């Protein structure tokens, strides 16, 4: 077991007896339910890299046709394919985990308005996710517009 | 007579006068099939080793004193049946807390955090007795009721990865109890608590691991409270940008 | 620095939350078509032809969507990496690590805006 921060849950005024240092939760960071949480945090690295990669892609669109064509062609490289498969898995994982936790984070009342019940919010999230993916995907693929 | 279950209890021991660091001790305990982990610990103390120190009181998951890690999971020991556990039962003090002795943890840090969120009804002006009670509809009660079921057992603190690494974080139960009052229709202290929630120990430290809610023995769902408190703090912050001083006089 | 971070936490959380919500929603379609469908030959590359892509991206809605597609995941990434450092025992170094990560996110946001403005 690893030590937690030495001041974790320490009182403002130290007690009279010597205490043993606080320990981190024994299953943290990869045991039991913590694994999903830790992986969820680590998707941050994927999103960070992916965000900058999309940025680079959009930037090349402003650099002219040759740069754009080269950028799109480069995505066929196995390293990019592997990274993007990992990215896709991460994005779906983030969506499923976050959307499951999202409804209960809504306060019971926002001003005078009450948010809809949790299952309705969840249904709306999935509808928007799938709908937006189909719409955005169709636009990008040349299906519409 | 029902057959006894022989369970091996591996228990953390720490005597501040003798031990530099905590150690473990193993006890073979003959358990009745309907025993809880707490019954096993009480058997050890009464029949095997009277020096064992552990907290307990009500034996019915109400007082919140007997929280410990059982096989790595923050658990009310009076609620967990030994028959549902493997032959070896490892009992350690709650994680993330300094250990006073054996299975007894230091509570004062939690008490400090709890007091900091002002878990009581705040009114700008107290109502005179002759004005009668402040009425509340069942719908208004329902909005905060689950958060008021907290028994301060601190299992949520033992499960929280943020508490382990950010000592200033107010933590799940205290935020849930503060939030419980902020959304109570009789309370007028939400703005005051939002300031606290956005100050040191901020609610934004929470990384939504949701472990607090997973281990809560009373289904309080502190993760919901913490994230609702974040949401309210953002609305409060945004309102403050548009209307300086939150639109207040 | 710690005080400034505390003041900015609601804004950071808002950007992080949108990074998960809108970022995830937008990235799914982008990944499926641009990064996987076309390179793997499952989707025709006609939709990504330069003239068409540039034309669509140059509209106001196109610019807004593309800027969000770049900037929001970067905020989500920066905030989650902050948690990764804290969870690894870096709570005491948060006042140094967090500003670096959010500076990266801010630079990413400025570049995202520039990237769509110059289209």
Estimated share of beta-strand residues of chain B = 5-15%
Low-pLDDT windows of residues of chain B: none
CATH superfamily of chain C: Fumarate reductase/succinate dehydrogenase, transmembrane subunit
Q: Return Rg of chain C in Å.
A: 17 Å
In the CATH hierarchy, the architecture of the largest domain in chain B is Orthogonal Bundle
CATH T-level topology of the largest domain in chain B = Fumarate Reductase Iron-sulfur Protein, Chain B, domain 2
Poorly predicted segments of chain C: none
Task: Give your account of this protein's structure.
The complex is a heterotrimer of chains A (about 140), B (about 250) and C (about 120). With about 140 residues, chain A is mostly helical. Chain A has helices at about 35-60, 65-75, 80-100, 120-140. Chain A is extended. In chain A, about 30% of the residues are buried. Chain B has about 250 residues and is an alpha+beta fold. Chain B has two domains: about 5-105, Roll (Ubiquitin-like (UB roll)), CATH 3.10.20.30; about 110-245, Fumarate Reductase Iron-sulfur Protein, Chain B, domain 2. Chain B has a five-stranded mixed β-sheet with strand order 2-1-5-3-4. A two-stranded antiparallel ribbon of chain B has the order 6-7. In chain B, a hairpin with a 2-residue loop joins β6 and β7 (about 105). The mean pLDDT of chain B is about 95. The mean pLDDT of chain C is about 95. Chain C has helices at about 1-35, 50-55, 60-90, 95-115. Chain C has a single domain (about 15-115), classed as Fumarate reductase/succinate dehydrogenase, transmembrane subunit (3 helical TM bundles of succinate and fumarate reductases, Up-down Bundle). Chains in contact: A-B, A-C, B-C. At the A-C interface, α1, α2, α3 and α4 of A face α1, α2, α3 and α4 of C.
């Amino acid at each position: 077991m690893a030590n937690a921060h030495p001041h974790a849950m320490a009182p403002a005024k130290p007690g009279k007896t010597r205490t043993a240092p606080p320990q981190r939760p024994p299953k943290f960071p990869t045991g039991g339910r913590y694994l999903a949480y830790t992986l969820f945090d680590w998707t941050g690295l994927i999103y960070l890299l992916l965000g900058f990669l999309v940025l680079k892609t959009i930037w090349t669109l402003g650099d002219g046709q040759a740069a754009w064509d080269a950028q799109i062609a480069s995505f066929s490289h196995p390293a990019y394919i592997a990274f993007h498969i990992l990215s896709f898995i991460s994005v779906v994982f983030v969506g499923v985990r976050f959307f499951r936790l999202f409804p209960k984070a809504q306060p019971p009342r926002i001003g005078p308005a009450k948010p809809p019940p949790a299952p309705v919010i969840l249904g709306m999230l999935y509808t928007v996710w799938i709908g937006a993916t189909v719409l955005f995907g169709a636009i990008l693929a040349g299906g519409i517009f | 007579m029902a057959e006894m279950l022989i369970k091996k209890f591996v228990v953390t021991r720490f005597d501040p006068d003798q031990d530099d660091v905590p150690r473990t001790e193993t006890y073979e305990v003959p358990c009745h099939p309907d025993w809880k982990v707490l019954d096993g610990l009480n058997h050890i103390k009464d029949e095997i080793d009277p020096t064992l120190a552990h907290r307990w009181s009500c034996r019915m998951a109400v007082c919140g004193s007997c929280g410990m890690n059982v096989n790595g999971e923050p658990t009310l020991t009076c609620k967990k049946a030994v028959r549902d556990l493997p032959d070896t039962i490892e009992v350690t003090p709650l994680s993330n807390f300094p250990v006073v002795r054996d299975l007894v943890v230091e509570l004062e840090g939690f008490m400090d955090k709890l007091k900091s969120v002002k878990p009581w009804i705040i009114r700008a002006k107290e109502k005179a007795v002759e004005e009668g009670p402040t009425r509340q509809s069942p719908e208004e009660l329902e909005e905060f009721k689950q958060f008021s079921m907290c028994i301060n057992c601190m299992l949520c603190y033992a499960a929280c990865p943020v508490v382990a690494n950010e000592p200033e974080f107010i933590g799940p139960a205290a935020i849930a109890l503060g939030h419980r009052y902020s959304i109570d229709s009789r309370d007028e202290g939400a703005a005051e608590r939002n300031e606290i929630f956005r100050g040191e120990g901020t609610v934004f430290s929470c990384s939504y691991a949701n472990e607090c809610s997973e281990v809560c023995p009373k289904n309080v769902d502190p993760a919901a409270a913490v994230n609702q408190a974040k949401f309210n703090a953002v609305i409060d912050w945004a309102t403050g940008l548009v209307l300086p001083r939150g639109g207040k006089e | 620095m710690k005080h400034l971070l505390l003041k900015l936490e609601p804004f950071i959380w808002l950007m992080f939350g949108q990074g998960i919500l809108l970022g995830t929603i937008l990235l799914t379609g982008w990944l499926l078509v641009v990064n996987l469908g076309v390179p793997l030959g499952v989707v025709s590359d006609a939709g990504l032809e330069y003239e068409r892509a540039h034309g669509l991206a140059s509209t106001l809605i196109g610019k807004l969507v593309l800027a969000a597609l770049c900037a929001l995941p970067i905020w989500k990434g920066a905030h989650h990496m902050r948690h990764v450092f804290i969870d690894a025992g870096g709570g005491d170094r948060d006042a140094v690590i967090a500003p670096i990560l959010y500076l990266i996110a801010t630079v990413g946001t400025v570049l995202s805006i520039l990237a769509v403005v110059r289209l």
